[in-house]
Design goal:
Helix 14 (287-306) packs across helix 15 (316-324) and helix 15 (316-324) runs antiparallel to helix 16 (331-340). It contains 18 helices and no strands. 66% of the residues lie in helices and 0% in strands.
Length: 391
């Protein structure tokens, strides 16, 4: 009821308190019924917390509190308890979606990735066959069709890219904590420590590339080459396509403060040591790889909008990353594409994202050092300054 009332309110543009009242009525009732571990591990508890999570995401104000994180934490407890009860999570597709949400919040610096970190640690990330068999997906198409043949391979490939993206976000979280402690004088970072950090980033970059080039299912390669990949399978692969490229951009630009500045190609290969953060870059960034990734994200997003594709929410963060590294001539185009995605948004997240991108562009224009590149502008810094909560 809360979600329905919220949806009506947002579509009409008229503020309505009915959704909040339904939500507030659900919380005491939930707390009263969840008294034991058995209660908490029930299907009802799982489904209720998932719906409440969706409500918090949809209702969240970009500069408000992140109450959704409480439901993420509770869902982690539920999934761990249910792991002891079932060999395979009966609602694997819900676990998949919650991991996706937590990873996105982690990349945006809004969440700490606690859930996805535990899911990876205990090897609980759902495999494709379980998602298809247990969420009723098989009822959406004839099992004998080409669509059904393609889905397991495409989903499993996307699973690998999703897990690597989560690992990238967790590494970035840890690096940012260390660099922030160094900047505050709470710890000293040696050059060898910083070199180890860079090596960890390189290792994940290599693993991402190797997964993309070597583990893509032959069926997917053939289907893409002949433009015959079935519709639903192509939609999932498009998600993998932009997520992979966004991860590559993120790995070169957003892992720690001043990463773009410390890895500038204009330093003639000499390491730059930034005494504010202790950043050092013994290797130059692959600017061609970053630029190509941005162009490919923009190209695919344009094509999806032009073809009337209906599941565009997954493209918002990749499009933001592409926009962050785009040249000045591509800025207006990127912002326009993002505005086109707003109709598919859950709540106000897409609007907040393109407003953040506009703010980053303004900061890049205002900066006096590295004016043409905006290398000393970090989007996570701008996000924090504006008090935004993206998910």
């Amino acid at each position: 009821m809360a979600l329905c009332a919220l949806g009506i309110s947002q579509r009409s543009g008229v503020k309505n308190l009915d959704s909040l009242q339904h939500y507030q009525q659900a919380l005491p009732s939930l707390q009263k019924t969840l008294q034991t571990a058995q209660d908490l591990s029930s299907d009802g508890a799982l489904l209720t917390h998932f719906i409440l999570l969706l409500y918090e995401i949809a209702a969240a104000e970009p500069q408000g509190s992140n109450l959704w994180s409480q439901h993420i934490s509770q869902l982690l407890r539920i999934f761990v308890l249910r792991r002891e009860m079932f060999d395979t999570e009966p609602y694997s597709f819900l676990l998949w979606w919650v991991c996706n949400i937590d990873t996105h919040a982690l990349l945006c610096g809004t969440g700490d990735g606690e859930l996805v970190e535990e899911i990876l640690r205990y090897n609980m990330f759902p495999i494709a066959d379980n998602i298809i068999q247990l969420n009723g997906t098989e009822a959406c198409y004839d099992p004998s069709t080409e669509e059904a043949s393609a889905m397991p391979a495409v989903l499993e490939f996307h699973r690998k890219i999703e897990m690597l993206t989560a690992r990238l976000g967790l590494l970035a979280r840890d690096l940012r904590k260390e660099y922030s402690s160094h900047a505050r004088g709470e710890m000293k970072m040696s050059r060898s420590t910083i070199s180890d950090h860079q090596r960890s980033i390189r290792d994940l970059q290599c693993l991402l590339r190797r997964t993309w080039t070597e583990q893509m299912p032959p069926y997917v390669v053939l289907g893409l080459g002949n433009q015959t990949l079935p519709t639903r399978a192509r939609g999932i692969f498009d998600n993998s396509y932009v997520l992979y490229r966004a991860s590559i951009i993120y790995s070169y630009t957003s892992m720690y403060p001043t990463q773009r500045l410390s890895a500038s190609p204009f330093l003639d290969g000499d390491p730059l040591f930034d005494h504010r953060y202790g950043t050092i870059s013994p290797f130059p960034p692959n600017n061609e790889e970053v630029s190509n990734s941005a162009r490919e994200i923009l190209s695919l997003t344009r094509e999806m909008i032009r073809s009337g594709y209906h599941e565009l929410r997954f493209a918002v963060f990749p499009l933001f990353m592409a926009g962050f590294v785009s040249q000045a001539a591509e800025r207006l185009q990127t912002l326009e594409l993002m505005r086109n995605l707003e109709s598919e948004s859950i709540g106000k997240n897409t609007k907040a994202t393109w407003e953040l991108l506009e703010a980053v562009y303004r900061r890049q224009d205002e900066t006096s050092e590295w004016r043409d590149l905006g290398l000393d502008v970090g989007w996570l810094d701008v996000l924090s300054e504006r008090g935004l909560q993206l998910i």
